Amino acid sequence: MAYTPSTAKTYTLHIPDQALTDFNQLLKLTPLGPQTYENTQTTHNYGVTYSWLSSAKDHWQNEFSWRKQEEYINSFPNYTLEVEPGINIHFIGLFSKNKEAVPIMFMHGWPGSFIEFLPLIEKVKKKYPDPEAMPYHIIVPSLPGYTLSSGPPMDRDWDLGDTARVMNGLMKQLGFERYLAQGGDLGSFVATSLVTGFEECVGAHQNLFSDLTDLGHEQPDPESLSPLERRALDHAKSVAATGLGYAIEHGTRPSTIGFMLSTHPVALLAWTGEKFLEWSDPSTTPSLTEILTNVTLYWFTGSFPRSIWPYRIYFGATAGTQKPFPYIEKPFGFSMFPYELATGLEGVLKQKTNLVSYRQHTQGGHFAALEQPQELWDDVEEFVGKAWSTP
């Protein structure tokens, strides 16, 4: 039997029947709004289309089974742990009895959740069916403010350093004196904070690197880039030019948008579902069931207004005042997916990090763990082989 940390409590997800009944009634009564020129266009991107939202709402109301998805989530080992007073962190954990097992923490971002990593965990379990001998401990937390984790606190502000401190505290309380961090979206920022600020984190692997779409940074010579890198950078520039309206709203009016999207589930689906469609590779877009599962969990846990705090840092009143991350001296790895919002170019990463592993992919986008779970896991395994050393 696999090792289970005594400090963590096992957890079973179960949304109360009455909450589910109320949700279904609200979904039934929520109107879509009228068709317009903008929401009926297919050749111009003005946001989510009437056709998609109408179809998704119908599927959500008449075919989607939350209880089935709940059962799927509960098929994984879920835990909770109070890392700090009032900060209870949910996580999925695969624990090995192998004394040489490497602890790896995988971290999601917005508008995702730990659900993004379930297909990847399935790949790990299939490759290593014996938990007694598995060469890794896999930890997938819900970041503070997201889904089944608590926070942020209401009596003070919260920033990236707070989240990094809590994530490091989680790993320490689980008994890991050394570990590796992996992340995309917000998880990539947390991973960078961990690897540059906490001795326990001895290496980081990411699939998003934020500096490269900052117009204040010098852009690399296109002739020095591979065709895949040029394609990815062009996509990132396009997103920076036309796709950041949502972030400005999150950063400058989080209270208002928080109320708006906590009132009607269809509004939440339109706002966040658009991101799953727009930020993924068209050839590897997450399924409607995966999108609805994530959005439904956001709804039941009141996650949206709790989860957008990072945008105040980078798109609010203090935008542009943050100090850049220092050079990453510890081993760093990167997976480049062509539809990522902020891609990592090998030449730039070599200047900013101790790059030991870099892989380019022809398919995949922002939700790499959902879109390309096998490819991301293979990359992480390669990184572990180069970054981890027995003390």
**What name is given to the CATH topology?**
Rossmann fold
Number of DSSP strands?
Answer: 9
CATH class: Alpha Beta
| Uncertain stretches of 5 or more adjacent residues | 212-216
Number of domains as seen in the coordinates: 1
Going across the biggest sheet, name each strand in turn. Answer: 1-2-3-5-4-6-7-8-9
Strand content: 5-15%
The mean pLDDT is 93
Order of helices and strands: EHHHEEEHEHEHEHHHHHHHEHEHH
Helix content: 40-55%
Number of helices: 16
Structural class by SSE content = alpha/beta
User: Which homologous superfamily in CATH is the superfamily?
Assistant: Alpha/Beta hydrolase fold, catalytic domain
Known CATH architecture: 3-Layer(aba) Sandwich
Distance between the termini: 26 Å
Shape by Cα distribution? globular
Question: How would you sum up the major sheet?
Answer: 9 strands, mixed
Give me the Rg, rounded.
Answer: 20 Å
Domain Epoxide hydrolase N-terminal: 9-117
Keywords: Hydrolase
Protein name: Epoxide hydrolase-like protein
Active site: 185 (nucleophile), 311 (proton donor), 366 (proton acceptor)
